[in-house]
Design brief:
There is one protein chain. With 144 residues, the chain is of the alpha/beta class. The protein has one domain (9-140): 2-Layer Sandwich (Nucleotidyltransferase, domain 5). It is 41% helix and 26% strand. It has 4 helices and 6 strands; from the N terminus they run E-E-E-E-H-E-H-E-H-H. The chain has helices at residues 47-57, 76-92, 104-116, 123-140, and strands at 9-14, 19-26, 31-41, 44-45, 61-66, 96-100. It has a 6-stranded mixed β-sheet, sandwiched between helices. A hairpin with a 2-residue loop joins strand 3 and strand 4 (44-45).
Length: 144
């Protein structure tokens, strides 16, 4: 995908069975920021919440973290994350890209700790920061 177009918004998702972190990014600045955390029940989000976010931000694409083991093999949550990505694509008709998310939560916790010590490590906030890392990784890998 070429990003030589005007500034466009993209949304990133860190899928989880209980929480889904959301981040927003811009293609021109290639920067991403944590946005919010959505609750999920057994991997099923409240779709109305996602619809509101998509209508507000009007993204050109959606980026979903793909959870893998360190050796690159799939894990039990990988299928659920892929199902979530497929649902996003069918519901909203936007391009959906999956990104290897190995270590995104570890990096998120490390970054948060560096910025504010143990007090900064709010479990729920980690999900939106992990989504930011996933989205930032995707933005940095795009063609100029």
């Amino acid at each position: 995908m070429k990003l030589g177009m005007p500034n466009q918004t993209v949304l990133g998702f860190d899928f989880g069975m209980k929480r889904i972190g959301v981040a927003v990014g811009q293609t021109v600045t290639r920067s991403a920021n944590p946005l919010t955390i959505l609750n999920a029940q057994q991997g099923e989000p409240v779709w109305e919440d996602i619809t509101k976010i998509i209508h507000h931000w009007k993204p050109m694409a959606l980026i979903v973290g793909r959870p893998l083991h360190m050796d690159g093999s799939t894990q039990s949550i990988t299928d659920a994350a892929e199902h979530f990505a497929n649902q996003l694509k069918s519901r909203y008709g936007l391009p959906v890209y999956e990104v290897d998310e190995r270590l995104s939560s570890v990096e998120a916790r490390s970054n948060m700790f560096d910025q504010g010590g143990y007090r900064a490590l709010h479990k729920k906030r980690v999900d939106s920061v992990a989504a930011q890392i996933i989205l930032q990784d995707w933005l940095e890998r795009q063609d100029h």
